[in-house]
């Protein structure tokens, strides 16, 4: 029955900064004091989480919020294939592979017209954002997803194949990159581009409810990511805009509340929705918006939630290196969770998948916010193939003044004594003002503070037998999109990289890059001009790495003054040095969400391969045949991997 569920949550230009020491503290857990450039060390110990937060020094340079707000503008022109060389600095030749990033990019519905020979034509042409409020999304997270791909060729050069009548010399790509940018052709995207108007309005009442939780409308990743209708709701818009993952020669874009979309890793053409080789039996059993690698075993894990007001079912999927379900338990674990489970992220250790669930009160009326303290639970779910596969152990997190909902996991692992440790970015919405959102978004710092929660880095510890142990704030610094070296995913890590605000512990948009050393309790950072804003930092591994920070950090850098974007490259072991190379992308890439880096020759496609695939994909789309929804197998053209091929891998 399609009843609307209502959920109430119970619950700048600054100088580069080198490593700064952190004052010793008495807690068993270390805590970082966030320091900014040219400021004296804050001689204070961090207070316990339940007390007033410690003071963080700040800069005197405020972010240019008009420039930042320009990062929420619809992209009207895609990039099929473009060879680009750096405009500053040289690319390191050991940086080889492809960087992918996903995020919302269309904020006015139907801004990319359908192919010219489409049978259905929109009655209205694309319009600039804000021109027609009926076509605008209410929250930037609602925008249709698009993917950026940048292939680093290193020293690789294409070779002319034997018997090739084409005498054209291969393109020189040494020290260069090949850039692509494409919208994910979701069913919703296709429907709206044909009509030239917004067709999906399910989130409107959720976003605009008078008492909706400010955490629910948070920027950049709100707690409410889809509206709550039971069963398969055809008007739930899968924007496929939250994260993109590459594993076993397959590229998937994800969103919380719908099926993943398969993407061609060369041309970024959309191949269709995926049920992960058939392991997802029903479309109602949608995937979450994140996937996690088990680097030691070379596996990848996904999850999905069958949501219901009384009890939800968690489905945990695990795949081997060939993207086949592992043999143990057929790669599937299913457990019951209490009540309506809105879960958007998770962590993976050797034996467990770790989830954090805030208890929600559900009724048949409008969304409401309760001022009661939240009840939040950590679930340790034994992975398929483990000794107690499918067993769940749940432990309540003590309430310390604000809820632990909407955690952004960075990494999880098990200590020698079996303690599960995970680091996450925690949101504190107590400082938020009104959660009312309207376009244009965040044009002033005060408006941004009303839209974004205070975010800080926390460490949680829980033992499968002894229960909850502790949660500690490692830094009050305002950070976003924390990552580790993916080779450390699922095991103990030393370094964390994150995007950071320029005002220390004050709420400010992500702007610079910060690195935390958990072993020496130090940090270093780099910040760009006041009108430039970094996205998620992504660790790029290199062949034969000898240390955890021997690779590079990649991040998009949006210039809001000129409305252009670059991809910047930093040395992971010397963040304060700043970018060693800058790659102009030839467009303005909106503020995005999560990405990945697929390192090595497997994704070091030649320019000719990418160009050939891109031309073929464009040709297929202009025919108006909607090949991405056809069930025929175009895998020979590289344009479609059918679920059968995806499931059986090399056997076909």
What does this structure look like?
There is one protein chain. With 652 residues, the chain is mostly beta strands. 7% of the residues lie in helices and 31% in strands. It is built from 6 helices and 33 strands. It has helices at 65-69, 187-195, 204-208, 445-451, 607-622, 643-648; strands spanning 6-9, 17-21, 79-84, 97-106, 144-152, 177-183, 243-247, 250-254, 261-263, 270-273, 292-294, 299-306, 311-319, 332-338, 347-348, 352-358, 360-363, 376-382, 392-397, 408-414, 420-428, 454-463, 467-475, 479-483, 495-500, 512-517, 522-526, 532-534, 538-540, 552-559, 564-571, 581-584, 595-599. The strands form 8 sheets. It has a 5-stranded antiparallel beta sheet with strand order 2-27-26-25-24, with no helix packed on it. A 5-stranded antiparallel beta sheet has the order 3-6-5-4-33, with helices on one face. Strands 28, 29, 30, 31 and 32 form a 5-stranded antiparallel beta sheet that branches. Strand 7 (243-247) and strand 8 form a beta hairpin. It is globular.
Taking the alpha carbons of the first and last residues, their distance comes to 41 Å
Query: Please, how many helices?
Result: 6
Helical amount among residues, as a percent range?
A: under 10%
Largest sheet: number of strands, sense, barrel closure: 5 strands, antiparallel
Shape: globular
Give, in spatial order, the strands making up the sheet with the most strands: 2-27-26-25-24
Report low-confidence residues grouped into runs of 5 or more: 1-58, 365-372, 625-652
Let me know the average pLDDT.
Answer: 84
Fraction of residues in β-strands = 25-35%
Provide the gyration radius in Å.
Answer: 23 Å
Secondary structural class: mainly beta
How many distinct beta strands? 33
């Amino acid at each position: 029955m399609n009843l609307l569920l209502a959920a109430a949550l119970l619950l700048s230009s600054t100088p580069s900064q080198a490593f700064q020491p952190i004052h010793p503290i008495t807690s068993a857990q270390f805590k970082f004091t966030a320091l900014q450039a040219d400021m004296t060390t804050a001689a204070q110990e961090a207070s316990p989480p339940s007390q007033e937060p410690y003071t963080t020094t700040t800069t005197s340079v405020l972010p240019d919020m008009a420039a930042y707000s320009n990062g929420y503008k619809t992209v009207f022109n895609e990039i099929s294939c473009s060879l680009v060389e750096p405009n500053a600095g040289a690319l390191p030749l050991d940086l080889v592979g492809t960087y992918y990033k996903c995020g919302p990019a269309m904020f006015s519905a139907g801004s990319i017209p359908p192919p010219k020979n489409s049978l259905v034509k929109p009655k209205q042409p694309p319009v600039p954002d804000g021109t027609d409020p009926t076509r605008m999304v209410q929250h930037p997270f609602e925008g249709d997803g698009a993917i950026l791909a940048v292939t680093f060729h290193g020293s690789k050069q294409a070779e002319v194949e034997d018997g090739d009548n084409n005498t054209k010399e291969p393109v020189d790509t040494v020290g260069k990159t090949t850039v692509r940018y494409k919208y994910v052709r979701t069913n919703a995207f296709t429907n709206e581009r044909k009509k030239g108007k917004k067709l999906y309005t399910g989130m409107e009442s959720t976003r605009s409810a008078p008492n909706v939780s400010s955490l629910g409308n948070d920027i950049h990743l709100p707690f409410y990511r889809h509206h709550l209708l039971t069963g398969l709701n055809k008007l739930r818009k899968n924007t496929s805009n939250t994260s993109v993952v590459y594993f076993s020669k397959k590229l998937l874009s994800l969103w919380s509340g719908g099926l993943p979309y398969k993407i061609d890793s060369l041309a970024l053409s959309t191949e269709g929705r995926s049920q992960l080789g058939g392991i997802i039996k029903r479309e109602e059993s949608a995937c979450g918006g994140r996937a996690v690698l088990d680097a030691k075993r070379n596996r990848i894990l996904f999850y999905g939630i069958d949501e219901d007001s009384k009890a939800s079912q968690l489905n945990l999927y695990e795949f081997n290196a060939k993207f086949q379900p592992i043999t143990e338990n057929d790669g599937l674990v299913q457990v019951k969770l209490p009540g309506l489970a809105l879960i958007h992220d998770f962590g993976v250790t050797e034996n467990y998948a770790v989830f954090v669930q805030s208890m929600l009160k559900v009724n048949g009326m409008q969304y409401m916010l309760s001022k009661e303290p939240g009840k939040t639970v950590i679930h340790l779910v034994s992975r398929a193939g483990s000794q107690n596969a499918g067993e769940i152990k749940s432990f309540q997190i003590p309430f310390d003044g604000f809820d632990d909902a909407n955690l952004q996991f960075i990494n999880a692992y098990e200590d020698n004594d079996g303690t599960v440790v995970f680091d996450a970015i925690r949101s504190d919405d107590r400082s938020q003002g009104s959660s009312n959102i309207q376009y244009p978004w965040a044009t002033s710092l005060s408006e941004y503070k009303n839209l974004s929660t205070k975010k800080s880095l926390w460490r949680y510890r829980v033992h499968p037998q002894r229960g909850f142990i502790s949660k500690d704030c490692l830094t009050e610094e305002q950070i976003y999109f924390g990552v580790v070296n993916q080779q450390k995913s699922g095991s103990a890590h030393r370094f964390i990289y994150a995007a950071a605000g320029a005002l220390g512990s004050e709420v400010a948009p992500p702007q610079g890059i910060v690195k935390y050393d958990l072993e020496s309790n130090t940090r270093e950072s780099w910040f760009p001009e006041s009108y430039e804003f970094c996205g998620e930092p992504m660790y790029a591994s290199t062949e034969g790495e000898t240390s955890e920070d021997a690779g590079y950090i990649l991040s998009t850098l949006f210039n809001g003054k000129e409305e252009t974007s670059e991809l910047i490259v930093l040395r992971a072991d010397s963040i304060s040095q700043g970018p060693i190379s800058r790659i102009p992308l030839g467009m303005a890439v909106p503020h995005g969400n999560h990405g990945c880096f697929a390192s090595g020759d497997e994704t070091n496609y030649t320019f000719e391969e990418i160009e050939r695939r891109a031309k073929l994909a464009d040709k297929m789309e202009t025919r108006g045949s909607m090949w991405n929804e056809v069930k025929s197998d175009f895998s020979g053209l590289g344009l479609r991997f059918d679920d059968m091929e995806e499931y059986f891998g090399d056997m076909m």
